[in-house]
Structure formats: C-alpha cells, structure tokens
Amino acid sequence: MFDDLFKLLRSPRWVNSPIARRFGFGSELSYEEDELEDSPSNWTKISTSGHRPPVRSGHSSLVVGDMMYVFGGYNDGNCHNDIYAFDLVRHHWIHIETSNGISPDGRASHAWCTSTDKTKLYLFGGSGPHWGQTNMGKLLQFNIRDKNWTIVEAQGTQPPPGYGQSLCAINNKLYLFGGTSGHVYVNDLYVFDEVTKVWKKEETGGKRPSPRYKHQVAMVGNRMYVVGGGLYDPPKGPIDTYYLDVDTLVWHEVECGGDIPKSRIAHTISQLASDPSRLIMFGGRDDSGSRQNELSELNLRTGEWRIYYNEEGFQPDARDFHTSVVHNDRIFVFGGSNGVERNNDVFRYTMTHQPSTLLILAMQVLHQNLDYIPNEDLEALPFELKIGIQNINPDVECSFNPTWYMLEDQKQENAAPVM
C-alpha cells in the first residue's frame, strides 16, 4: 500500500497538481526501502474517549478496517455479552447496541474471527462463569453492517462445547483447533465451510501439536501457525510452534532458534500487516506461573526469535488473558489480568514510524484541502487514504464514501481459567 502511495505522490499527475504545488509535494519526494524497517520505540498508554468497556479478561478482540471489535470477557463473577468498537485512529470507544436486541450468552475464552470477506464476525464456544460446567458450542455470527447477531444453522460433525480454542478464516473456511472442556484437552481440527454451512472433523497427518488451550494462531498463505498454549499450565521449556498446511492437512513442527521465550498460555500473537511472516508475542503466563510483559518476535522466514528491549523503561504491567491487535503496524493491547485485578486500559507499541506518519499526514492534508482537489484525483487515491479521510471527519460527503463501513454511532460522534 505504501508503494502505491509513494508512486501516486511522485506521479506527474500529482506533482503538477495545485495541491502538490501548494504543499510542496514535488519530484524530489523519495523513499528508501530501509525506511520501512522496524524502529522499536517505547510503549504509550492511550487516553481514550467515548463509552469505555468495563474491566475484563478472557475477552476477544479483532480488527476490521480502523475498528477494533471487543466481545465478552470475565470480571467479578460475571461473564460479559457486550460488544464494543474502538476507533484505532481517533481512540474513541463505542458501545454497539444490536439492531435486533439479541445478544449471545455472556462468556469468556471463546474463539472469534472475521469471515473471509470481512463483513461478519464469527463466535464459537467459550464458558460462562462456572468454568467447565457452562461450556458453549453454538456458532454465531455478528453482521458488522446490520449490527445484529444470528445463530448459524450448521450441519455436519459439529465441535463439542468447550473453550480456549482458536478460530481463523481463509478461503471461505473456518479452522477451529484445540481447546478444553475444563478437564479434557484436545488437539482436534474442525473445519466449517462458510458457503455450505457444514462442519467437518478433519483427520490430519504429520506431527500434530499436543492437546492444548489458550494458544494463538496466525495465517500466512496456506499455513495456519499455532504458537504456544498448553494444559492448565504450559509445558516446561521453550515455547513451541507448529503449522498446518491447509491444502494437505499435514502438520509440521517449526524448528526455532534465537532468544526463544518460555512456553506460555493466555498470551497474544500480533501479525504485522507489512510483513505477515513476523509474529509479535506479548504477555501470557509461563511454565513457572509468572505473568509476562515482554515483547518478542518470531520471524517465520528464519525461524528466529528475538526480544524487544524497551530503552525508555515504560511498558504495560505483566498480564494474561488480554488481547492485542495490529493496525498500521502498531500493536494495541487491551485489558487482561495482572493476577490482582483486571483492567480496561489500552496500550500501543509502534513498530514503524515513517510510513505511518506519512499516511496520517497525507490524510490530514488531503482532508483540509478537499475543495482544491478534483474529484477524479480523489477517486485515484488508495483505499486506505479514502477511509482515513472519512475517519478524520465522518460527515465528509465524497463519491467514494463507503457508508456501510462506518458505524452509525460513529457518524454521530464528533470526535483452565477462562480469564
């Protein structure tokens, strides 16, 4: 996307345009490939506005566009069934009221992912506050545009109720792996076809991961990577990593080197959009029972782990059962438990500086000068810039305005344990 942006800003069409001459976008604009390399900086605690969720752990979060969607979680003997959206650009919380008044039962340590087309959020499993006695096994979906929940009427061999599973989507199929009933841990794989609505328990080959819950997964091409996880406590030793080839359904163990972290559960893995083969791990509980707050990276191309050392010294408290997401190669961590209390804070870790800064500046300059820009030039903008302009001011009316993409609430605003 940044390559496209730079090509556009260097093109004669833009260099010779009134907006380029006015603000100095000239032919001298250039960028070097090494400017896109990561430059680790210190953590920032984000000051947020809007309707902030109550404290929680064991919830789930994911990103669609500029919004982080948060569902469920546990606190003080109760499991939440609410859904919130957090604007990752404006740092504004929105409590989403469902259009049909229907919400799932409260739960924690459920599985949660986007549909392949990014228009729906799938929810499976989880447990109520009586761990292992109130397990859930229905597949539900939340329609982002219509803001309503529905139960998916699925056929086939359906997964048993449980919690601590992982769920991810690729090519119109959902892959559900692992989890626990509270006493029995599994390493089974179930696949759901989004088109036919049929579940199937798949037989896999190769070296399967051991039974586990509260692991993390990431999709890279046709590979589903599984990082960490365990039983009630993670196994002794370094964290393990496997991948499943979703075409052949064969498992492979990843031989890792470098500064390999201890095994852990209830951690998070964040996948960089600029390089999906780089997985960033934060937090979790290790094999000694200690919660962690280190940030580590696994480079899947090399199999090497490394730790990010924070020279400034500030970083979030050690925690587990939190969530993390990536937006513009910035990692946002929300909620979780430090062993004494749960929280609802938001922290950000910036992996890259210049590309994100350029994108934000371009959004601001373009938004401030929309009256000077011909509509055909607006139409030529990359999609991310179009969305960014609208996020700065949702009331802007442009022919490219993707109105379904924005929440109605946003348009009205100015600005094992399972947990």
Q: What does this entry look like structurally?
A:
Keywords: Kelch repeat, Repeat. InterPro entries: Kelch-typ_b-propeller. With 419 residues, this protein is mainly beta. The protein has 2 domains: 2-37 and 354-411, no CATH class; 44-350, Neuraminidase (6 Propeller). Helices cover 13% and strands 32% of the residues. The chain has 7 helices and 32 strands. The strands form 8 sheets. Strands 2-8-7-4-3 form a 5-stranded mixed beta sheet, with no helix packed on it. Strand 31 (330-337) and strand 32 (342-350) form a beta hairpin. Helix 4 crosses helix 6. The longest helix has 15 residues, at 354-368. Residues 21-40, 353-357 and 391-415 have low confidence and may be disordered.
The main sheet orders its strands as 2-8-7-4-3
Largest sheet: 5 strands, mixed
Low-confidence stretches: 21-40, 353-357, 391-415
Cα-atom radius of gyration: 22 Å
CATH superfamily label of the largest domain: Kelch-type beta propeller
Share of helix, binned: 10-25%
Q: Averaged pLDDT, please?
A: 83
The strand count comes to 32
SS class:
mainly beta
CATH class type of the largest domain: Mainly Beta
Q: Please give the CATH architecture of the largest domain.
A: 6 Propeller
Question: How many helix segments?
Answer: 7
Proportion of residues in extended strands: 25-35%
> What's the shape?
globular
Alpha carbon gap, first and last residue: 37 Å
CATH topology tier name of the largest domain: Neuraminidase
Write down the domain tally: 2
